[in-house]
Write a structure and sequence with these properties.
CATH class: Alpha Beta
Distance between the termini: 36 Å
Oligomer: single chain
Number of strands: 13
Order of helices and strands: HHEEEHEEEHEHEHEHEEHEHEHHH
CATH topology: TIM Barrel
Largest sheet: 8 strands, parallel, barrel
Helix content: 25-40%
CATH architecture: Alpha-Beta Barrel
Number of helices: 12
Shape: globular
């Protein structure tokens, strides 16, 4: 089976990047994909925001924008799957081409622009899978032309409440003009206050679903303590560190220096992991962190955990290594924990 997936991955890499992604989702919807359960190992279990994850390796937002294939991705072994980004109204996103493989660097540049089908079909698909096992989250965004972007996040939270296991507030994509302004102090206060008020009303007399905040890797280091304090004030459950970067490190060469969009994959690993460590120090280990950016091996997942993450997410690495990567990372994590004398993953968090 591993050979089959490797062959399929090699074939898909011959297609234009966005065509390959669309084809992959269609094949998964048709049932061509892994059929196993999520990988569940006692030493890899972790808990975030009241959610018990069978393993710490999650699928990052961006792969399954429309909640088409969460169960197929759980069957690839992921401990949790994040669908989206979804906006209240459907939107086409930015002009093509808008997705680029940097194969020699195991990296991707995208300027998709929150292309998605909107909340109605997203909600319908989540509703249809409610009795199935596995942890599935919704990554919420705002429409590009919205007159009130904060209202878009409130709308997403309200209309999807009860249909998924957690929510991520994504204010860190570089591909919607002005969106990252919501990471400013005053703007974030207004956003998180309205989210907290809405969440309180929705949870009255019923379950209170976790809400996470996803930040940019380009966040100024001086803003980290302020963001942590705001997350505490408004009782969010975790911080996802981080989204794609607008930086263009010298390592990717001159060819890609002027290509607009967010850079993900291996060149993001160092920067995102340093920021993760800064957040861990600022939180003093008291706020759950999820590490994202350049995770393509067990060693890199372990580095994120040692830097302070209780779980990790990946997406770009699947483009180059295929779905068997999830099992390989979990296998390697187990071996590394044992070699360092840790009985559980949570013992290793923040020890780097």
């Amino acid at each position: 089976m591993s050979l089959l997936y490797k062959t399929g991955t090699a074939f898909l890499r011959r297609l234009p990047a966005e065509t390959a992604h669309t084809t992959t989702v269609r094949l998964l919807r048709a049932g061509f994909g892994p059929q196993g359960p999520a990988i569940d190992r006692p030493e890899l279990r972790t808990r975030i925001g009241g959610l018990d994850l069978p393993n710490p390796v999650g699928l990052a937002a961006g792969f399954d924008k429309n909640a088409d294939v969460p169960d197929a991705m759980l069957a690839s072994g992921f401990g949790f799957v994040e669908c989206g980004t979804v906006t209240p109204r459907a939107q086409a996103g930015n002009a093509r081409p808008r997705l680029f493989r940097l194969s020699e660097h195991d990296a991707v540049i995208n300027r998709m622009g929150f292309n998605n089908d909107g909340l109605d079909p997203f909600a319908r698909r989540l509703r249809a899978r409610q009795d199935r096992p596995g942890i599935v989250g919704a990554n919420l965004g705002a429409n590009k032309d919205s007159p009130d972007r904060i209202a878009d996040y409130v709308d997403g939270l309200t209309r999807l409440w009860g249909l998924c296991d957690y929510f991520t507030i994504n204010i860190s994509s570089p591909n919607t003009p002005g969106l990252r302004k919501l990471q400013g102090a005053d703007e974030m206060d207004e956003l998180l206050e309205r989210i907290a008020q809405t969440r309180s009303g929705l949870a009255a007399g019923g379950p209170n679903y976790p809400v996470f905040l996803k930040v940019a890797p380009d966040l100024d280091e001086g803003a980290v303590p302020r963001v942590v304090e705001q997350v505490r004030t408004y009782a969010l459950d975790a911080i996802i560190v981080s989204n794609t970067t607008i930086d263009r490190p010298d390592s990717i060469g001159a060819r890609w220096k002027d290509e607009a969009g967010g850079l993900s994959g291996q060149p993001l690993f160092g920067k995102s992991t340093r920021l993760l460590g800064q957040f861990f120090d600022a939180t003093e280990g008291r706020i759950n962190l999820i590490g994202v950016g350049g995770v393509g091996s067990g060693a890199q997942a372990y580095a994120k955990i040692r830097a302070g993450a209780k779980a990790v997410q990946l997406y770009s690495a699947l483009v180059f290594h295929g779905p068997q990567l999830v099992g390989e990372i979990c296998e390697d994590l187990s071996a590394r924990l044992a070699a360092d004398g840790f009985a559980t993953l949570e013992e290793a968090v923040g020890t780097g």
